[in-house]
Write a structure and sequence with these properties.
This protein is α/β, with parallel strands linked by helices. The chain is built from 9 helices and 11 strands.
Length: 348
């Protein structure tokens, strides 16, 4: 059920070259058949003409209502003015323009060193509903002035995505329009990098992971109807993939969600979600703690956990103990969505 823009981008990405990203909000151009792909071609052609590049170098993204034909003529008519008004400082405007049910624009920026050069990474994203791996009904675009080849960017982004957007869930539903692009302008002057494992990319790799996680968390904070933000860390699982499945089983459990929403430290629901994941978990070594207080240990309710009610205030965390299977929670009260703002804003 991929949308026409997603199919276009997957084909265009094979060339490893991009000159523009053209985004529309309000219409997902998904489940629109041949007319949908024709709308993509026409939109890309209009942008290519304005920017003097090939249509295949224009990446297209759409978000909004599914199943409604996209009137590409409106996009084509707007392209000339968009091209004239391009600005290195318009990140906030771009982030706001792609919003649908979002309540605030999502932006992030970081800098990193490659050799002796300082490079910048700027990112914007949108998303509020249909948020779940892989990835969500979200659009995210990250741009850097680093001089990195497409194969390196692809490898770095795959790892960053797995640790950020693909670890985010609001409603457990994926979308037709998921798009995440990482583009490099090549303007920075630094030593040539030919492989993603190059040691000189160590700082860049960390910073890219931070930036994508920042954007992903902003999307989760802005989830439709969301009032609380929960992070789940699993230790002691058989492997990383098993740990992720256990965490997602907990995160997507309606019963766990209602317990969190009601500030009810119902640890039995957490144990239930661990079990239904299908992964190995030793019940005799299972430990659950909320708010730093152990409430279940070794198949039994822990007496200390009865001293205070959990779930209020800053909420749920579990301190690492590699000897046990553990399920770490962090629950923090959200800023009301309409007064929330991103932690950082991209520069030029």
């Amino acid at each position: 059920t991929r949308s026409a823009p997603v199919d276009w981008c997957r084909a265009a990405a094979k060339s490893g070259a991009a000159r523009a990203i053209l985004v529309n909000a309000g219409n997902a151009n998904a489940f629109t058949g041949k007319a949908g792909m024709e709308a993509v071609r026409r939109s890309a052609a209009a942008a290519a003409e304005a920017l003097k590049c090939k249509p295949q170098q224009v990446f297209i993204a759409s978000t909004g209502v599914i199943g409604v034909p996209l009137d590409w003529t409106k996009i084509a008519a707007a392209v000339p003015a968009l091209a004239r008004d391009l600005s290195a400082l318009a990140w906030d405007k771009a982030a706001a323009a792609i919003m649908t049910t979002d309540t605030f624009p999502k932006t992030a920026t970081r800098t990193a060193r490659i050799g002796n050069a300082t490079v910048r990474l700027n990112g914007i994203a949108k998303g509020s509903g249909m948020i779940a791996p892989d990835m969500a009904t979200l659009l995210a675009f990250v741009v850097t002035d680093a001089n990195l080849p497409a194969k390196v960017l692809k490898a770095l982004l795959a790892r960053a995505t797995e640790q950020s957007f693909n670890c985010a869930t609001v409603d457990g539903d994926t979308s037709t329009s998921d798009t995440l692009l990482l583009c490099a302008t090549g303007q920075a002057k630094h030593p040539r990098i030919g492989a993603p494992g190059d040691k000189r990319l160590d700082e860049f790799r960390v910073v890219l992971n931070e930036l994508t996680r920042d954007l992903a968390l902003q999307v989760v904070r802005d989830g439709e109807g969301a009032e609380k933000l929960v992070s789940i860390a699993v230790t002691g699982a058989a492997n990383a993939a098993a740990g992720k499945r256990i965490a997602l089983s907990i995160a997507n459990s309606p019963l766990v969600k209602t317990a969190i929403a009601g500030a009810d430290a119902n640890w039995g629901r957490i144990v239930m979600a661990v079990g239904k994941s299908g992964e190995k978990a030793d019940r005799d070594k299972l430990k659950v703690a909320i708010g730093g207080v152990t409430i279940a240990l070794n198949r039994d309710r822990h007496r200390r956990g009865r001293r205070r009610r959990q779930g209020q205030g800053h909420g749920v965390d579990l301190r690492p103990d590699p000897r046990l299977y553990q399920y770490q929670w962090r629950l923090s009260q959200l800023i009301p969505p309409r007064t929330a703002s991103p932690r950082s804003k991209p520069g030029g």
